Amino acid sequence: MNFDAVKQILDSANQPPYRIKSLVGAIQANRLTDYDQLSSWPKTLRQALKDQLPFTSYSNTQLISGTSQTKKALLELTQGGSIETVLIPIKDNQYSVCVSSQVGCAMGCSFCATGTLGLSRSLTAEEITDQIFFWKLNFPEAVIKTIVFMGMGEPFANELAVNQAIDWLQTYYGIGARHITVSTCGLIKGIENFAHNHPQVNLAISLHAATQELRQQLMPIANKVDLEALSQAIHQYLKHTNRRITFEYLLIDSVNDSSQNLKDLADWLAQFPLQLVHVNLIRYNQTTDKYQQPSNNRVYFARDYLMNQGIVATIRKSYGDDIAGACGQLSRKQYQKEEK
To answer: How far, in Å, CA of 164 to CA of 166, rounded?
Structure first.
């Protein structure tokens, strides 16, 4: 739903701004599928919305459920292309939603299935927030607590739409800034702008290697943005926000999980105030035969090594790997178990 367009229609009809929030609430509570079902709204207003504004930015949808209560949805967009979004359990009836910011991705990270698709186009703010809309419409019982921009695409390569989507999520869906996380592979200008535009929103850096040579092997962006440039941008971000950064580190067997790799990582992170550093260790999810998962022992060793260096490190629990919905696996495949 395009909330700016809704506001314009409401303004032209001399309607109060609170009706936008009541619109979202009514749709979610009653699982409405079109404007005509807004029975408490004036007929002229319902007709204006119907005539001028599509109810959603997607048409056909497919859904698949995993064994861990994780659900992945494929949304076919009316403006062309398709994207995936994932509903991830946190605890009890609370969930996180992983959203996409682009149709495909141009970054081409060697471990990521999305990168094999290439980039078709960037999403609009409406197409980004409609992923939340989809889950609220189809699973109104799920309490969405956090939003992570870790789906298809590089968020800072679609900066304007992502910024607008973040504003809409806070204003109309009631998601607090500190419950939203944006992950980037390291676009410098995006990091700089993010510090000023959304200083309270969480930032995650996809690092995955702490030496220039290895990072270039894993992530083509490193050929344009070296570790020195990245570190300078991070220093400026921390200076402006004093907010903790999460560094995502995907552990790949015999590629970046050795003792030397971990020492390189600890040494590189030591340049930052360690109280503002959090390493999120991610066990590689299978996307290609080129790489293999490390053993559990290696994952725990990595965590313990970093912790012994005074660096807070956690292991990300993998959700959705059985439905190709885990980190790095989104590639619009494996919908044989379609539910809807």
So the answer is: 5
Specify the pLDDT at position 328. Answer: 59
Closest by CA to 51, choosing from 37, 36, 31, is: 36
Are 86 and 332 in contact by the 8 Å Cβ rule? The answer is no
Which residue in 76, 84, 105, 248 is the catalytic one? Answer: 84
| Global pTM value | 0.92
Q: Is pLDDT larger for residue 140 or for residue 144?
A: 144
208-230 pLDDT, tens digit per residue, is: 999 999 999 999 999 999 999 99
Would you call 105 a catalytic residue per the annotation?
A: no
Tell me which of 98, 105, 109, 327 is the catalytic residue: 327
